[in-house]
Amino acid sequence: MIVADDAGGMWPAINHSPWNGLTLADYVMPFFLFIVGLSLSLTCKKLSCRGVATKNAVLRTLKLLVLGLVLQGGFFHRVNNLTFGVDISQMRLMGILQRIAIAYIVAALCEIWLKRDSNVNSGSSLLRNYQFQWAVALILSILYVILLYGLYVPDWEYQIPIETSLSSPKTFLVKCGVKGDTGPACNAVGMIDRKILGIQHLYRKPVYARTKQCSINSPDYGPLPADAPSWCQAPFDPEGILSSVMAIVTCLIGLHFGHIIVHFKDHRNRILHWLIPSACLLVLGFALDWSGMHLNKALYTFNYMCVTTGAAGVVFVSIYLMVDVWKYRRLGMVFEWMGKHALLIFVLVACNLLPLVLQGFYWKQPHNNILSLFGVRA
């Protein structure tokens, strides 16, 4: 994700898709959520006390939420100008860590309270043992589809301050009046976030600003075309409330993959029980895309969940074969270290703390910082 963020402008194929479609970067978030769920099943393999486990899960969730608000709420903004701080009335409320926290707490509570302790010796007994968790995943998926395609989205408006003028902010009206739309302007995901969170608390650099309608440099950010639609500059949160519902389902599927590790010890059995659901998810996801349900990361559509989670399962099986079956562990030692320190790396690099340090120490002028020694100009 760090590579995609920093080099996506030069290589659009690895940057996030401007709206519909899939790129390399669009697989990262589901892979995070998948491995969170898988790891959770190992952590909760043997619980001495459900109450204590619940307390620990809630505390961990709160830590992630607070850290997410500080790191992605806008506190460390405008790094190149060496400024920081955020107006709480304009703070972004959702973000990557907040989404992970939401998916984690739901999956954790399911794992702590919604599982049986019966013996598992087959695929069918595995499903019976965790049938209530699968029921939660099914209910969430149905709820998401009903809301996305069933909610009516009315016209709405937003304002943009004019920086070079003391006059009132410019107001834009977005015409909708539709139901079931999955375009950038009139989808139910954005409407729910505007109603519940407030438009002032949404992400101000939406991915759809890189579409052809909104950028002359598409698929990169750029100046608005002369005929740009009114919604191009509107805030939109890619980690919003409704889209996080499907993120929870991704985490629950990862939880199921972890259950296979817990209950099956034979390599062949594990791989078989991983590959079958992965293949089914991939086929279902691409079939739905072919039938008209778009793959969309910003909305976290149902078939996007299927394709990316199925791909996560296939990648996981590949790593399992390399490390656990064929014993090529040395090849993955760097990634193992990164996995153990993923949150630290995310905080330092992806959330501007490392750039802040590198640019914050300078000689007489801000542009004479550590980066300038390597020929890098902020």
Automatic annotation (TrEMBL):
Keywords: Membrane, Transmembrane, Transmembrane helix. It comes from the Eukaryota. The chain crosses the membrane at residues 27-45, 57-76, 96-114, 134-152, 241-264, 271-290, 302-323, 343-363. This is Heparan-alpha-glucosaminide N-acetyltransferase catalytic domain-containing protein. It comes from Ficus carica (Common fig).
